[in-house]
Every structure is written in structure tokens, then in C-alpha cells.
């Protein structure tokens, strides 16, 4: 038997197509397969040596840069010493990391909020745990979730996911959906603000639940929904309404966390809300598998009554990577970089909107941006075909984007936080060429 890896495009594509299950086939975005061989910071190289600027950040997992040397060496040093240590034993690396993560959380006006951490292997595991925690703490079963939300692939996480393409039949129930406060195409019209959507939460609690709820899950900025920011007052108002019905406010920071929005470490901070539970994953490990539920101490407490064991939760190799990620965000001033470079990219995207009718909306903040393609600016009919054409054409310009949105009509940009101002020109010029070709 040989374990040698065949590095050709054809061989890899043929082998994957033959041996991967059907469940992994749909999720191949490009018409032609791509095989990446190397990554460094915000760049990728394919198997034929072609360089790309990565605006997808491997689905927002690469926070501080591909194969960032500090993260890689922290993980390697730990892996060589002890790769895995099951959670029943004490280990200093996850213990330090838990302390460091909680230090990033707000402590409230009286400084008395205490936070605790439960490490998981992935975001969906963390979402499942947050759902269980909210139900255990409140004694209520019903949860609220937002339409166009994405919270993960497990059955529980799918049950609070509001995009049909990501939901399989037969997911668990006791979830009521509220309209997402989309300020471009939301049900209450353009720039309707938070108020009608907060009323909608109250109405939904009153009409679609027993009147008492376990909580609401809110992505501080919806990612796969097509970069939908929560309008001012929404997150804090939602927390108020849900708490009045006995529930908790749960922030999903899997995409919006770790400084990505530029203004704050956590997306929820934009509205001054202090969540009861915060879910994080992806960028936490810069590509190493890791997730976490960070909860107020008293809310996590009832979970002590039963065993709950995530085999790779608190894995020291991933946690060593996570600690290095926090250091690099701080030392390389990546939150500030996200703010500056994100603002420059947003400006270039806005200029493109001025020149291409097919762009209906440009939005986002920091390095969490999107353009939405429409067939007609007044009807706002989503245009997934032009989106797909631009997406393919930017690949040829050496830029990797992501298609997203409930109708696959948005091009999402969530690069590693080290993207530079020079990259902004590469990306905007590449998009310009792609849009010109797609509109011709
Ligand atoms: C906002 C959000 N929450 C949760 C998840 C689930 O995370 P994971 O894929 O690590 O299970 C994702 C994954 O894309 C996500 O984008």
C-alpha cells in the first residue's frame, strides 16, 4: 500500500468525485474543480502554481492569515508534546485559553458578569450546546431564530437555520422564525430600522410560542444570509423582548467575531447588548478545528447535572492555535486593519455600484462585506445567474469570492484580517473586469 499523495488536478477531482458521499457534492461552487496546494496570509496557490487573493478566508476560518507562522508553530509545539488530552484531565493550554477568551467579554456596568467557557470541536456543536443550555436554564422549550440565518449542519443547528437550501427534511421543532431586519429587502421595506422587526418578535412570541421562550439566536451580522447587518437598536431590543418572555439572548459570532467587523472584537458590541451566551468557532482557530460556548456563569451551571462530553473539545493543539490567534489579532492590530482596509474596499465596491446596474446593494463593515446582484434595481429581483457569472470571472482574475444569500445572489467578502490596501485594488479591479464581462 502506498500513502503517497497524487497532486494533480485531474487525479484529485476524479478521486473526490468517486469516493466522497453525495452529501458533499452540492457544495462545490466553481464550474471547474480547484485544488489548492499552499496558503500564506491572504494568498492561496493552486496546484498549478497560480496565485489567488482569498476573499473567502476558507469560509471565514482563516482569521489571521493562511498558515500564519505564529499559529502554526504554537500548534506544532503543542502537537509534538501532547497532541490530544481528553477533557477529564487538567491541561494548562485550554485553561489559559478559557481565561483569555473570557477576558474579551464585557463585564457589564457593575463589572460583575462572570463568564465561563465550554470548548467544542465545531460551531454546530457549540450551537447545539447553546440550545440545550438555554432550554436547561430557562425550562422553556421554544426558541426564536431569524429568517436567512445559518447556524450549522447538525440537526439541531439546522432547526434554527432559516435558508431552505441548508435545511433537510425532518429537523427538530419548537423553533419560531422572525423576519430578519434586512434594511435592503426586508418585509418592512428599505431602511425601516429596527422597530417593526422588534414588534414582530413580540407578535411571534405571542402567537407562535406558549408565550415563554428559551431564547433567541442572532448572528450579529448574518453571514451566509448575504452579510445582513442588524440595524441600530435591534440586538439590544431583541434581547429586551426575549428576556421579558423568560428567554436568553444568544449571539452567534462564528462569522462576525474576532475583530472582523473592525469596530469591535465582537459583533454584538455594536449595539451595546450583553448576551447571555456567545457562540464562536471558525476564526477562533485560524483553520484548526475548534468552537466554544462562552456563557454567563450562572447560565452554564444547570448543565452540571448531566454528562456532556465533546471528544475533541479543549484539544490542546487547537487551543494552542487559538491562543496564538488572540495574540496575533492584538499584536498585528488586525481589528484596526479590518476597519481601515474594509472601509477602502467598501468605497471601491460602492464606486462599482455607481457603474454597474446589476449591483443592487453594497453593504457590510470591516472585512465582512457583500454586493447583491439584482435583475432590476426597482423590483430587486435577485439575480443568481449574474452572481454566478461574476463569481466565475473573478476566479479567472485571481480572486476567490463566495456566493451567498438565501437566493445565491450575493458575493460575500470575508478575507483573512491581514488583507492589505494593495489587495483592495487587486480585488476591486478583478471585480470590475468580471462585472464588465458578465454585463456584456
Ligand atoms: C454563523 C454560523 N454559525 C454556525 C456555523 C456552524 O459552524 P461549523 O461549520 O463549524 O459547524 C457556521 C458555519 O458556517 C456559521 O457561519
**End-to-end CA span:** 52 Å
Mean of residue pLDDT? 96
Number of strands: 17
* Number of structurally distinct domains: 2
Number of helical elements: 13
Quote the CATH topology of the largest domain.
Answer: Aspartate Aminotransferase, domain 2
Coarse structural class: alpha/beta
Instruction: Indicate the percent of residues in helices.
Output: 25-40%
What's the main sheet like? 7 strands, mixed
CATH hierarchy class name of the largest domain: Alpha Beta
Radius of gyration: 21 Å
Beta-strand portion reads: 15-25%
Q: Which strands sit side by side, in order, in the main sheet?
A: 4-12-11-10-7-5-6
Low-confidence stretches: none
Coarse morphology? globular
CATH architecture of the largest domain: 3-Layer(aba) Sandwich
Tell me what the structure shows.
It is a single chain. This protein is of the alpha/beta class and 440 residues long. Helices cover 36% and strands 17% of the residues. The strands form 4 sheets. The chain has a 7-stranded mixed β-sheet with strand order 4-12-11-10-7-5-6, sandwiched between helices. Strands 1-2-3-15 form a 4-stranded mixed β-sheet. A 4-stranded antiparallel β-sheet has the order 13-14-17-16, with helices on one face. Strand 16 (402-404) and strand 17 form a beta hairpin. Helix 4 (92-102) runs parallel beside helix 10 (316-331). The longest helix has 22 residues, at 334-355. The structure holds pyridoxal-5'-phosphate.
Amino acid at each position: 500500500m502506498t500513502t503517497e499523495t497524487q497532486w494533480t488536478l485531474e487525479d484529485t477531482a476524479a478521486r473526490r468525485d468517486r469516493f466522497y458521499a453525495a452529501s458533499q457534492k452540492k457544495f462545490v461552487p466553481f464550474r471547474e474543480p480547484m485544488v489548492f496546494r499552499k496558503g500564506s496570509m491572504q494568498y492561496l496557490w493552486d496546484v498549478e502554481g497560480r496565485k489567488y487573493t482569498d476573499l473567502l478566508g476558507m469560509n471565514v476560518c482563516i482569521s489571521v492569515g493562511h498558515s500564519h507562522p505564529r499559529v502554526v508553530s504554537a500548534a506544532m509545539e503543542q502537537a509534538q508534546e501532547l497532541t490530544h488530552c481528553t477533557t477529564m484531565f487538567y491541561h494548562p493550554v485550554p485553561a489559559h485559553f478559557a481565561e483569555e477568551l473570557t477576558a474579551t467579554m464585557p463585564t457589564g456596568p457593575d463589572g460583575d458578569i462572570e463568564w465561563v467557557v465550554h470548548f467544542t470541536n465545531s460551531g454546530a456543536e457549540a450551537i447545539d450546546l447553546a440550545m440545550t443550555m438555554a432550554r436547561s436554564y430557562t425550562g422553556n422549550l421554544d426558541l426564536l431564530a431569524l429568517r436567512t440565518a445559518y447556524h450549522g449542519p447538525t440537526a439541531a443547528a439546522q432547526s434554527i437555520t432559516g435558508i431552505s437550501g441548508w435545511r433537510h427534511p425532518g429537523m427538530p421543532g419548537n423553533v419560531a422564525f422572525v423576519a430578519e431586519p434586512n434594511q435592503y429587502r426586508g418585509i418592512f421595506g428599505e431602511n425601516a430600522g429596527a422597530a417593526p422587526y422588534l414588534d414582530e418578535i413580540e407578535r411571534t412570541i405571542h402567537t407562535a410560542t406558549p408565550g415563554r421562550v428559551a431564547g433567541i439566536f442572532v448572528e450579529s451580522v448574518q453571514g451566509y444570509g448575504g452579510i445582513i447587518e442588524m440595524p441600530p437598536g435591534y440586538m439590544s431590543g431583541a434581547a429586551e423582548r426575549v428576556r421579558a418572555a423568560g428567554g436568553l439572548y444568544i449571539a452567534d459570532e462564528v462569522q462576525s467575531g474576532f475583530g472582523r467587523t473592525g469596530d469591535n472584537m465582537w459583533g454584538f458590541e455594536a449595539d451595546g447588548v450583553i448576551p447571555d451566551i456567545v457562540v464562536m468557532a471558525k476564526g477562533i482557530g485560524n483553520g484548526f478545528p475548534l468552537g466554544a460556548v462562552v456563557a454567563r456563569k450562572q447560565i452554564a451551571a444547570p448543565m452540571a447535572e448531566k454528562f456532556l462530553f465533546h471528544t475533541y473539545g479543549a484539544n490542546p493543539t487547537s487551543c494552542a492555535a487559538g491562543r496564538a490567534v488572540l495574540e496575533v489579532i492584538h499584536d498585528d492590530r488586525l481589528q484596526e486593519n479590518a476597519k481601515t482596509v474594509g472601509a477602502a474596499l467598501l468605497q471601491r465596491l460602492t464606486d462599482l455600484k455607481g457603474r454597474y446596474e446589476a449591483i443592487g446593494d453594497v453593504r457590510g463593515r470591516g472585512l465582512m462585506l457583500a454586493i447583491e446582484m439584482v435583475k432590476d434595481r426597482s423590483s430587486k429581483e435577485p439575480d443568481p445567474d449574474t452572481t454566478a457569472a461574476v463569481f466565475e470571472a473573478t476566479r479567472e482574475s485571481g480572486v476567490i469570492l463566495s456566493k451567498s444569500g438565501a437566493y445565491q445572489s450575493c458575493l460575500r467578502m470575508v478575507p483573512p484580517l491581514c488583507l492589505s490596501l494593495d489587495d483592495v485594488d487587486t480585488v476591486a479591479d478583478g471585480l470590475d473586469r468580471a462585472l464588465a464581462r458578465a454585463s456584456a
